[in-house]
C-alpha cells in the first residue's frame, strides 16, 4: 500500500504533511496557495504597499493581514464571514494565515 510521505512546506518548516492522523482539516489544498504566495512574495508586497486611511483606535489585526485572510478565505470557499467562523480553530487555515488557534 502506497502512503503519502512526510513532506515539509517551505513557508513553515514545522508543518509536515502526512496521512497518519493528528490535527485534521478539509482545507489542505490551501497549502499550495500559501506556497505560491511565498514564492512570488505576494504577502510581503501587500504589507509593503497597502496603505489605507484607518482611524480605528483599537485593533488586533493589521489591514494587510485582514485582506490576506479574506483572500485565503475566499480561495477556501468561504465567501461570507459568517460561514468562515469555523476557520478560527482550523489547524491548516491558522497556519496559512500565520495565526495560532484560539
Please write the string of helix (H) and strand (E) elements.
EEHHHH
Averaged pLDDT: 76
The number of helical elements comes to 4
Q: What is the gyration radius calculated from CA atoms?
A: 15 Å
Strand content: under 5%
Shape by Cα distribution: globular
Number of strands: 2
Question: Structural class of the secondary elements?
Answer: mainly alpha
Q: Strand arrangement, largest sheet?
A: 1-2
**Cα separation of the termini:** 37 Å
Low-confidence stretches: none
Query: Roughly what percent helix?
Result: 25-40%
Q: Note the main sheet.
A: 2 strands, antiparallel
Organism: Compostibacillus humi
Protein name: Transposase DDE domain-containing protein
InterPro entries: Tnp_DDE_dom (IPR025668)
Domain Transposase DDE: 9-99
Describe this structure in words.
This protein is mainly alpha-helical and 102 residues long. It has a domain of 61 residues. Helices cover 37% and strands 4% of the residues. The chain is built from 4 helices and 2 strands. A two-stranded antiparallel sheet has the order 1-2. The longest helix is centred in the last third of the chain and has 13 residues. It is globular and about 50 Å long. 13% of the residues are buried. The mean pLDDT is 76. This is Transposase DDE domain-containing protein. It comes from Compostibacillus humi.
